[in-house]
Amino acid sequence: MIxxxxxxxxxxxxxxLFNGFFDINLWLVGTFIVVGFxxxxxxxxxxxxxxxxxxFWGKVYKxxxxxxxxxxxxxxxxxxxKNGKKDIEKFxxxxxxxxxxxxxxxxxxxxxxxGNKFQKRFIDGSFDSELVIATRATVSxxxxxxxxxxxxxxxxxxxxxxxxxxxxxxxxxxxIMQGMVWDFEKHPHMLLSGDTGAGKSFFLFxxxxxxxxxxxxxxxxxxKRTDLASLSRTKPLKGRVFYTNDRIxxxxxxxxxxxxxxxxxxxxxxxxxxxxGNYREYGxxxxxxxxxxxxxxxxxxxxxxxxNVQKILASITMLGRQLGFFVITAMQxxxxxxxGSAARDQFQxxxxxxxMKASGLNMMFPDENPDNCASLDxxxxxxxxxxxxxxxxxxxxxxxxxxxxxxxxxFNELGxxxxxxxxxxxx
Length: 427
Description:
The protein folds into two domains: 56-155, Alpha-Beta Plaits, CATH 3.30.70; 164-426, Rossmann fold (3-Layer(aba) Sandwich), CATH 3.40.50. The model has no long low-confidence stretch (mean pLDDT 83). It is α/β, with parallel strands linked by helices.
């Protein structure tokens, strides 16, 4: 409609021009200008709104942002030459950078490691941090290839969220977001923090569901008797959820002792083997202890009790990987003193959900500048940052839990499904 009107006015305007300038209808000219302006405004609006969804304009827009960052950060060298009385500056050197577009929602930036004076900024991530802010992307991976450091980026990480039932699971890997798979043998032990309303419990539900599907032996502690405690009455977790202080402490000690017993079992196995293999190679199952509200539990104990729990945690985190014993420690606010110095650096998978203060981010991601972890909408549940050591924190969205989710009903159905699967295997 607008295009037809525009063409009509254009035809009329040309007609009037060829039939005498002074015969032009000023109202027609004004209408022509207004319609042209509205058409330009509409095209600009659609460009701004859909520039990320357009392959061509999306590439142009990202390249323009990269160019802006290069110039604003001074990533170039200039020389001055005199031309008579004037000094003329010319560009002498630009680092050889590349941007590769993998899809509409992901791209890679190649920064040269050729001894240039900007190399330190490329390696420590300070240059890429500016690009992340400009493009509103998140760094998903970093590696070096043929003289370049490569930063992989994702746009709109919310689009990479997986649903609770569609998360892929294997014997030692669980998918927690598209493009992010937690291999708990490679990155053992998870440290999880998230304040009230951040989605911590729902994330734990999804992780527990995936672990059950993976066939691990699972125990759960919930000293506050909140969300996870309700799973004690479900089919797959009956007798495996503990919420009294004495029982939690007893089961945690038992879990550690089972790990030490497996170490003795290994010694017997290795008498006839050359070298120490993975626990799965000998037909052994992975064991998990999910410890919710860990800080709250520690604060309920006296000094001797705290020391005992911290020693057990250190034992599991330092010895458990090879033996197939893993722990997930969850808390509302990260507390380094509660975890203990021996276990603090052993958590290779870290997830911080929701808005968090700089002190909390420093504890969760000690090698990262908290300013690089921007906060999103506080009403958006399940978002945060995740790190698989030794990588960098990246934007993270926990698996999506369907509306009207009923934990007990879901896990009872899951238990029945797992029973049928075991029966099918045994036949």
